[in-house]
TrEMBL record:
One Pfam short name: PilZ
Annotated ranges, domain Type III secretion system flagellar brake protein YcgR PilZN: 21-126
UniProt keyword Nucleotide-binding, yes or no: yes
Natural source organism: hydrothermal vent metagenome
GO biological process, one term: regulation of bacterial-type flagellum-dependent cell motility by regulation of motor speed
Name this protein carries in UniProt: Flagellar brake protein YcgR
PilZ domain: residues covered: 129-240
One example GO MF annotation: cyclic-di-GMP binding
Amino acid sequence: MENPKTTESSRQDSAENQENYLVDNKVGVTAKLKQLIKHHCMVTATFNNGNQSISTQVLDVIKDLDLVALDYGPSETVNLQLLKATRVFFKTELDGITVQFDADSITKAKLHDDPVFAIPIPASLLWIQRREFFRVPIPIGAPAYCEVKQIDGSYRKYKIFDISAGGLSLHDGYKDLDYEEGQVLSACKLELPDHGHDTVNLKVQNSFPAEKGKPGAGRRVGCEFVGIGMSFGATIQRYIHSVELARRQIEN
């Protein structure tokens, strides 16, 4: 039998944690961006379905113009490719906190007569404490899946071992997911039970036997999310907490 106080406390903790992850008001977003400026955080801007990236920094938040100014890159070729992007994902770290935000448009502008990138002030950003950046195993009774695009353009469905805000592990039961470390798997279809689905890009981090001494059990392929959008990033967080809450309720 559930303990009402424990269950209610778990729900409250989960709600509070979700709020800590997603900052979705202009004042809060601006304050967080100014912290990145103060600490000179290097920001990775990823575009072209996760296949290209550039290092930059947040230089200024111009509230009157609703713009964020970012450092212009040294390669004009890459700069021009970035300026053509229809979606750009930004990621950095500050004192163990992972920060993510995105932009649907990016332009070239000037700040103090120097060229800069300019994006609208994000409507929201993810602010994830490292202690909250943990993997949870997917419940056996409610499996989650990820469809990976094959060479011929078709999709194959793989069960997910575990998931975190930063990535997931795939179960290659077919034993044919032969990808190199660092390779980006574009346009994968991630399905989370009762929480929806979306297209994500995955970067392969490692691969090893799913069960030691049992080659027939397939392989575990660890992947990192690349350029995940704010909305679905928050959905993943909610899913993680729902799994954790269910686990706590069973234990109690």
